[in-house]
Design a protein that fits this description.
alpha/beta; TIM Barrel
């Protein structure tokens, strides 16, 4: 399944390269809502909230009102998750809050699952150089994606794996890495990071992995 991605920064839709350099920005919101309306799931990320630079809650509410969204960015507490679900999110994406002092925070994951149920939770596993990155990809831990997924599997319905090394570069995602992660969990697995062709999406689908795509869509390489 293709899951279109909407990343928000400074009140606009943006696309960043490897989470750092802004490559594209748009403010024609309704056009993208209309184009994405046929998809069963949209990924909506508040990059400002993820990086601790304010938030785009009004835009999140508007997109989530019109589209079925899983929403992430800066959700690091029960209250923040509840507020995001209150904006209309179908599921919330947690990332940085699952790591505490360099270790996997299974206690927090269980607390969230007890409060909302695993079905409302997607756990982000963002990898740079084979290690999990947090805080808007600004800090890299010593934890491997496999280690994180194995520890947290009981508490979520899906894992979102982003391969930061290829994210935004339109050079494809490493299938060997994705296959290894697919074999490591029974949960839904969603992959992101450099996907640019329908062939890649079909290959991921064949191994039971959904594909989040941003840059290829916004550059017109993948029709939606």
């Amino acid at each position: 399944m293709l899951i279109p991605s909407i990343d928000l920064m400074g009140g606009k839709i943006v696309q960043l390269v490897q989470g750092r350099q802004k490559a594209l920005e748009f403010d024609n919101f309704q056009e993208w809502v209309d184009r994405f309306s046929k998809y069963p799931l949209i990924q909506l990320i508040d990059l400002d909230a993820a990086m601790g630079n304010g938030h785009n809650a009004d835009l999140v509410r508007e997109f989530a009102r019109q589209l079925p969204c899983q929403v992430g960015g800066g959700i690091r507490s029960l209250e923040a998750a509840q507020a995001t679900l209150g904006l209309g999110a179908r599921r919330v994406i947690l990332g940085s809050s699952l790591i505490s002092k360099g270790a996997i925070n299974s206690g927090f994951a269980q607390q969230m699952a007890d409060e909302f149920g695993p079905g409302k939770l997607v756990f982000a596993v963002d990898s740079r150089g084979g290690r999990v990155a947090i805080k808007g990809w600004q800090e890299t831990t010593d934890i491997s994606p496999l280690e994180m997924m194995r520890a947290l599997e009981p508490f979520c319905s899906a894992f979102l794996y982003t391969h930061i090394d290829t994210e935004g570069l339109l050079q494809g995602i490493p299938f060997d890495t994705v296959r290894e992660l697919r074999n490591a969990t029974s949960r839904e697995l969603i992959a992101a990071g450099g996907i640019r062709t329908q062939e890649e999406i079909d290959t991921l689908h064949a191994i039971g992995v959904d594909a989040v795509v941003g840059m290829a869509i916004y550059q017109g390489l993948l029709p939606v």
